[in-house]
Design brief:
121 residues, DNA-binding, mainly alpha, 434 Repressor (Amino-terminal Domain), homodimer
DNA sequence: ATGACTGTTTAGTATTAAGTAAACGTTCTA
DNA sequence: TAGAACGTTTACTTAATACTAAACAGTCAT
């Protein structure tokens, strides 16, 4: 119930942009497509309620045709799929994450590229 | 309430090993040190209740003088600190994790070592 | 044979997250 | 001037997680 206004503002912005050329993006209709009540969406968009759970946020991102990581991040949540990935390597991946903590985004991108190279080659 | 017997069995094993040369590790006293009731610990150790939340598991690992990742992993949980790390790089780290998914532990260790080298050098 | 300490059982409670139904005032259209 | 649709408000609900207090039965030392 604390309310995250950044998430809400961005969501309304994205939804209203879509609404301009698609009448399926009214608050009521969008809420229905996502699987939540208009009541709840209204309050979330105005920061009166916390963002919905990750699953609903991912659904929203799909409908809005954007990358779900942006909305998840604004909501202060992490894609639950990442938790699954970590659980598949429950000692090596925590170690990796703790090691890369503090690295810049560019460094992380280079490391990711190197990991990808390994996979392919 | 499902009950995770592997976590419980291992916990009891570790606690009873400690108890052999330290009377502070009875079920009641250990429960108190961790900050949970003996009722709850008894049921958790016998797999009748789900493991406690991550924070309590980490406290247990400290008291037992073991690496918390083992217990967290048995409990099917992830160190909440990792979520914080991901949120610090909310696009690069999800990408990295999705990229390394499926890599063997040895490969992950090599990658971690490379990340560490970069940091130091 | 009592008191002190075990772990266990019975019977629940507390907290938090994640929402909802229905009515309301406003605007737009027919 | 009625009907339909919009976003909002009021007043609660539901579901899951994470536990707890108190009584109980067994063991051990005194």
């Amino acid at each position: 119930m604390a309310g995250n206004i950044k998430f809400g503002k961005r969501l309304r912005e994205l939804r209203e942009a879509k609404l301009k050329n698609n009448p399926k993006f009214t608050l009521r209709k969008f809420a229905e497509s996502v699987g939540i009540s208009p009541t709840f969406l209204s309050k979330v968009e105005r920061g009166e309620f916390d963002p919905p759970k990750a699953e609903k946020i991912i659904k929203m991102a799909e409908l809005l045709e954007i990358d779900s990581d942006e909305l998840l991040s604004l909501a202060g949540k992490v894609d639950p799929e990442l938790e699954k990935i970590i659980k598949e390597q429950p000692t090596a991946l925590p170690d990796l994450l703790r090691t890369v903590r503090g690295m810049s985004e560019a460094e992380l991108r280079r490391l990711t590229q190197r990991a990808r190279d390994k996979e392919d080659g």
